[in-house]
Design brief:
By secondary structure, the protein is of the alpha/beta class. The protein has one domain: Rossmann fold (3-Layer(aba) Sandwich), CATH 3.40.50.150. Helix content is 36%, strand content 29%. The protein contains six helices and nine strands. The chain has a seven-stranded mixed β-sheet with strand order 3-2-1-4-5-9-8, sandwiched between helices. A two-stranded parallel ribbon has the order 6-7. Strand 8 and strand 9 form a beta hairpin. The longest helix has 17 residues. The N and C termini lie far apart (50 Å). The structure holds S-adenosylmethionine. S-adenosylmethionine binds next to helix 1.
Length: 200
Protein backbone atom coordinates (compact mmCIF):
# COMPACT_ATOMS: atom_id res chain seq x y z
CA UNK A 1 0.00 0.00 0.00
CA UNK A 2 1.28 3.48 -0.88
CA UNK A 3 1.19 6.08 1.85
CA UNK A 4 -1.82 8.31 1.07
CA UNK A 5 -1.34 12.01 0.48
CA UNK A 6 -4.05 14.68 0.47
CA UNK A 7 -2.93 17.72 -1.49
CA UNK A 8 -5.72 19.77 0.14
CA UNK A 9 -4.18 19.18 3.59
CA UNK A 10 -0.80 20.40 2.39
CA UNK A 11 -2.51 23.53 1.07
CA UNK A 12 -4.68 24.39 4.06
CA UNK A 13 -2.71 23.10 7.06
CA UNK A 14 -0.78 26.32 7.75
CA UNK A 15 -3.83 28.60 7.70
CA UNK A 16 -5.79 26.19 9.89
CA UNK A 17 -2.83 25.93 12.29
CA UNK A 18 -2.76 29.74 12.58
CA UNK A 19 -6.40 29.63 13.70
CA UNK A 20 -6.00 26.66 16.05
CA UNK A 21 -3.17 28.49 17.82
CA UNK A 22 -5.71 31.14 18.83
CA UNK A 23 -8.36 28.62 19.90
CA UNK A 24 -6.75 25.53 21.44
CA UNK A 25 -4.65 27.55 23.86
CA UNK A 26 -4.65 25.52 27.05
CA UNK A 27 -3.09 22.04 27.23
CA UNK A 28 -5.62 19.34 26.56
CA UNK A 29 -6.88 16.53 24.40
CA UNK A 30 -8.23 16.96 20.90
CA UNK A 31 -10.57 14.45 19.29
CA UNK A 32 -10.43 14.69 15.50
CA UNK A 33 -13.42 13.41 13.53
CA UNK A 34 -12.77 12.13 10.00
CA UNK A 35 -8.97 12.37 10.21
CA UNK A 36 -8.53 11.03 6.65
CA UNK A 37 -4.83 10.54 5.94
CA UNK A 38 -3.86 11.90 9.39
CA UNK A 39 -1.72 14.61 7.80
CA UNK A 40 -3.41 17.41 9.72
CA UNK A 41 -2.75 15.71 13.05
CA UNK A 42 0.91 15.15 12.18
CA UNK A 43 1.40 18.79 11.17
CA UNK A 44 -0.62 20.33 14.00
CA UNK A 45 0.98 18.30 16.79
CA UNK A 46 4.45 19.28 15.57
CA UNK A 47 3.48 22.89 16.23
CA UNK A 48 0.98 22.56 19.10
CA UNK A 49 3.08 20.64 21.56
CA UNK A 50 0.68 21.21 24.47
CA UNK A 51 -1.99 19.05 22.82
CA UNK A 52 -2.62 15.32 22.68
CA UNK A 53 -4.43 14.35 19.50
CA UNK A 54 -6.87 11.45 19.15
CA UNK A 55 -7.30 10.38 15.52
CA UNK A 56 -10.54 8.81 14.33
CA UNK A 57 -12.28 7.84 11.13
CA UNK A 58 -14.06 4.97 9.41
CA UNK A 59 -11.97 1.79 9.59
CA UNK A 60 -11.23 2.00 5.84
CA UNK A 61 -8.95 5.02 6.48
CA UNK A 62 -6.91 3.56 9.33
CA UNK A 63 -4.22 1.70 7.36
CA UNK A 64 -3.17 4.84 5.47
CA UNK A 65 -3.32 6.97 8.60
CA UNK A 66 -1.07 4.53 10.44
CA UNK A 67 1.57 4.94 7.72
CA UNK A 68 1.75 8.64 8.60
CA UNK A 69 1.68 7.84 12.30
CA UNK A 70 4.60 5.39 11.96
CA UNK A 71 6.86 8.29 10.93
CA UNK A 72 5.99 10.50 13.91
CA UNK A 73 8.68 10.71 16.57
CA UNK A 74 6.58 12.00 19.48
CA UNK A 75 3.78 10.23 21.34
CA UNK A 76 1.18 12.97 21.32
CA UNK A 77 -0.95 11.35 18.60
CA UNK A 78 -3.09 8.39 19.63
CA UNK A 79 -3.84 5.51 17.22
CA UNK A 80 -7.11 6.00 15.35
CA UNK A 81 -10.44 5.03 16.84
CA UNK A 82 -13.22 3.70 14.64
CA UNK A 83 -15.74 6.51 14.90
CA UNK A 84 -18.62 6.63 12.44
CA UNK A 85 -21.15 9.39 12.98
CA UNK A 86 -23.85 6.75 12.39
CA UNK A 87 -22.78 4.77 15.47
CA UNK A 88 -25.40 5.16 18.21
CA UNK A 89 -22.81 5.93 20.92
CA UNK A 90 -19.14 6.92 20.88
CA UNK A 91 -18.67 6.34 24.62
CA UNK A 92 -16.18 9.22 24.89
CA UNK A 93 -16.41 12.22 27.16
CA UNK A 94 -14.53 15.08 28.75
CA UNK A 95 -12.70 16.17 25.57
CA UNK A 96 -11.22 19.67 25.75
CA UNK A 97 -11.38 20.20 22.01
CA UNK A 98 -12.89 18.55 18.94
CA UNK A 99 -11.69 19.26 15.40
CA UNK A 100 -12.93 18.23 12.00
CA UNK A 101 -11.92 19.37 8.51
CA UNK A 102 -13.80 18.86 5.28
CA UNK A 103 -16.10 16.19 6.67
CA UNK A 104 -19.34 18.14 7.10
CA UNK A 105 -19.98 18.47 3.36
CA UNK A 106 -19.11 14.79 2.76
CA UNK A 107 -21.66 13.41 5.21
CA UNK A 108 -25.45 13.82 4.83
CA UNK A 109 -27.56 16.37 6.69
CA UNK A 110 -28.85 13.63 8.98
CA UNK A 111 -25.28 12.51 9.67
CA UNK A 112 -24.25 16.10 10.40
CA UNK A 113 -27.04 16.23 12.98
CA UNK A 114 -25.75 12.98 14.50
CA UNK A 115 -22.20 14.36 14.54
CA UNK A 116 -23.39 17.24 16.71
CA UNK A 117 -25.10 14.83 19.10
CA UNK A 118 -21.79 12.98 19.53
CA UNK A 119 -19.83 16.21 19.85
CA UNK A 120 -22.23 17.48 22.52
CA UNK A 121 -21.72 14.27 24.50
CA UNK A 122 -17.93 14.15 24.07
CA UNK A 123 -17.03 17.78 24.83
CA UNK A 124 -16.47 18.90 28.35
CA UNK A 125 -18.14 22.00 29.71
CA UNK A 126 -16.75 25.11 27.92
CA UNK A 127 -14.93 22.84 25.43
CA UNK A 128 -14.57 23.95 21.80
CA UNK A 129 -15.54 22.28 18.53
CA UNK A 130 -13.73 23.72 15.47
CA UNK A 131 -15.19 22.76 12.10
CA UNK A 132 -13.31 23.68 8.89
CA UNK A 133 -14.89 23.72 5.43
CA UNK A 134 -17.30 25.56 3.14
CA UNK A 135 -20.74 26.65 4.39
CA UNK A 136 -23.73 28.45 2.88
CA UNK A 137 -25.34 31.49 4.51
CA UNK A 138 -28.90 32.86 4.16
CA UNK A 139 -29.68 30.11 1.66
CA UNK A 140 -26.86 31.09 -0.73
CA UNK A 141 -23.44 29.92 -1.75
CA UNK A 142 -20.64 32.27 -0.76
CA UNK A 143 -18.90 31.87 -4.15
CA UNK A 144 -19.27 30.45 -7.64
CA UNK A 145 -16.55 27.92 -6.86
CA UNK A 146 -18.49 26.61 -3.84
CA UNK A 147 -21.59 26.32 -6.04
CA UNK A 148 -19.63 24.25 -8.57
CA UNK A 149 -18.10 22.18 -5.75
CA UNK A 150 -21.59 21.41 -4.43
CA UNK A 151 -22.69 20.17 -7.87
CA UNK A 152 -19.60 17.93 -7.98
CA UNK A 153 -20.28 16.62 -4.45
CA UNK A 154 -23.89 15.71 -5.27
CA UNK A 155 -22.90 13.96 -8.49
CA UNK A 156 -20.47 11.84 -6.48
CA UNK A 157 -22.98 11.13 -3.69
CA UNK A 158 -26.50 12.64 -3.71
CA UNK A 159 -26.42 12.88 0.11
CA UNK A 160 -23.22 14.96 0.22
CA UNK A 161 -23.63 18.72 0.08
CA UNK A 162 -22.38 22.00 1.47
CA UNK A 163 -24.40 22.60 4.61
CA UNK A 164 -26.28 25.74 5.55
CA UNK A 165 -24.82 27.62 8.50
CA UNK A 166 -28.29 28.16 10.00
CA UNK A 167 -29.02 24.41 9.89
CA UNK A 168 -25.68 23.60 11.51
CA UNK A 169 -26.31 26.21 14.18
CA UNK A 170 -29.66 24.57 15.00
CA UNK A 171 -27.86 21.20 15.47
CA UNK A 172 -25.31 22.88 17.72
CA UNK A 173 -27.96 24.59 19.86
CA UNK A 174 -29.97 21.36 20.18
CA UNK A 175 -26.87 19.75 21.66
CA UNK A 176 -25.86 22.45 24.12
CA UNK A 177 -23.42 24.47 22.00
CA UNK A 178 -23.40 28.06 20.82
CA UNK A 179 -21.35 29.89 18.21
CA UNK A 180 -18.05 31.11 19.63
CA UNK A 181 -16.44 32.33 16.39
CA UNK A 182 -17.05 32.19 12.66
CA UNK A 183 -13.70 32.73 10.96
CA UNK A 184 -13.22 33.51 7.28
CA UNK A 185 -10.57 31.34 5.64
CA UNK A 186 -8.92 31.33 2.20
CA UNK A 187 -10.66 29.72 -0.77
CA UNK A 188 -14.18 30.45 0.53
CA UNK A 189 -13.86 28.20 3.55
CA UNK A 190 -14.71 28.96 7.18
CA UNK A 191 -13.81 27.73 10.61
CA UNK A 192 -16.97 27.52 12.69
CA UNK A 193 -16.16 27.31 16.38
CA UNK A 194 -18.80 26.07 18.80
CA UNK A 195 -18.52 26.26 22.57
CA UNK A 196 -20.23 23.81 24.90
CA UNK A 197 -22.36 25.59 27.45
CA UNK A 198 -20.94 25.60 30.94
CA UNK A 199 -22.80 23.42 33.36
CA UNK A 200 -23.17 25.37 36.63
C1 LIG B 1 -12.87 14.87 2.48
S1 LIG B 1 -12.32 13.75 3.68
C2 LIG B 1 -11.47 14.84 4.82
C3 LIG B 1 -10.34 14.15 5.50
C4 LIG B 1 -9.44 15.07 6.34
N1 LIG B 1 -10.14 15.58 7.49
C5 LIG B 1 -8.90 16.19 5.49
O1 LIG B 1 -9.20 17.37 5.76
O2 LIG B 1 -8.18 15.89 4.55
C6 LIG B 1 -13.80 13.30 4.59
C7 LIG B 1 -13.58 12.34 5.71
O3 LIG B 1 -14.83 12.04 6.33
C8 LIG B 1 -14.82 10.67 6.68
N2 LIG B 1 -16.19 10.18 6.82
C9 LIG B 1 -17.07 9.89 5.83
N3 LIG B 1 -18.20 9.40 6.33
C10 LIG B 1 -18.03 9.36 7.68
C11 LIG B 1 -18.85 8.91 8.75
N4 LIG B 1 -20.06 8.38 8.53
N5 LIG B 1 -18.37 9.02 10.02
C12 LIG B 1 -17.14 9.53 10.24
N6 LIG B 1 -16.33 9.96 9.26
C13 LIG B 1 -16.76 9.87 8.00
C14 LIG B 1 -14.09 10.02 5.51
O4 LIG B 1 -13.64 8.73 5.81
C15 LIG B 1 -12.98 11.02 5.25
O5 LIG B 1 -11.81 10.75 5.97
Amino acid sequence: MTKPFAESCAQNQQVILDVLKTLFIEPGEVLEIGSGTGQHAVFFTEHLRHLNWQLSDLETEHAGMKMWLDEVEHNRIKSPLVLDVDMPEWLLNNKDYIFTANTTHIISNLQAEKMFKHVGECLKSAGLFAQYGPFNYHGSYTSESNKNFDVWLKQRNPESCIKHFEQIESYAKANGMTLFKDIEMPANNRVLVWVKEQVP
